[in-house]
Amino acid sequence: MAASPLLERWIRCLECIKKKQRLQLLGVACMLIASKYEEICAPRVEEFCFITDNTYTREEVLKMESKVLNFLYFQLSVPTTKTFLRRQAQESEILTIDVKPGWKKGTKITFPDKGNEQPNQLPAALVFVIDEKPYDLYKRDGNDLIVNKRVSLAEALGGGGGDDTIF
Predict the structure, then answer these.
(1) CA-closest candidate to residue 49, choices 67, 70, 66, 32
(2) Distances (CA, A) of 37 to 1, 42, 46, 48, 86
(3) Residue (of 70, 66, 33) closest to 48 by Cα position
(4) 144-147/108-111 β-pairing
(5) Domains by residue range for the chain, with CATH
(6) Per-residue pLDDT tens for 28-65?
(7) Between 125 and which of 9, 73, 112, 144 could a Cys-Cys bridge form, CB atoms 3.0 to 4.6 Å apart?
(8) What digits encode the pLDDT tens for the residues 99-150?
(9) Do the beta carbons of residue 103 and residue 130 sit within 8 Å?
């Protein structure tokens, strides 16, 4: 997976590839670099020569590897979506909403000074609006929850039969 961005960055410099037949050598060199960067036990250079049907020697692969690394100034890491998401998750603040019993649909919950204050946007607090969804087992009657469940007389007299749904 890491070989593809390396290859793309190198191909942008078209004068580096004088002949199309060297493109396979470039690809193998990028795979070698990526395997050294990503794998715990990277394959030996001879294995990369083997996958080219020994079209290139060990020295040619290593020389191309050196050219690629020098061209990229040894900067192999490229930011990906995963990189940004990981960083965002580390910097994000987790807000807790304590929904009070009896809050109706449309109730607004605000977090002052937590909203977006970027240029060209109106600064605002973060606002959540409660939206009640129907549920087959429970119904709301004002502040009360009504459970609609059949129980036998023995379960009712004995304190329930066990298989209650927790909400």
Answers:
(1) 32
(2) 11, 8, 18, 15, 20
(3) 33
(4) unpaired
(5) 3-71 (1.10.472.10), 92-158 (no CATH)
(6) 888 898 888 888 888 899 998 998 888 889 999 999 99
(7) 112
(8) 776 777 777 777 666 666 666 655 555 666 777 677 777 777 766 777 777 7
(9) yes
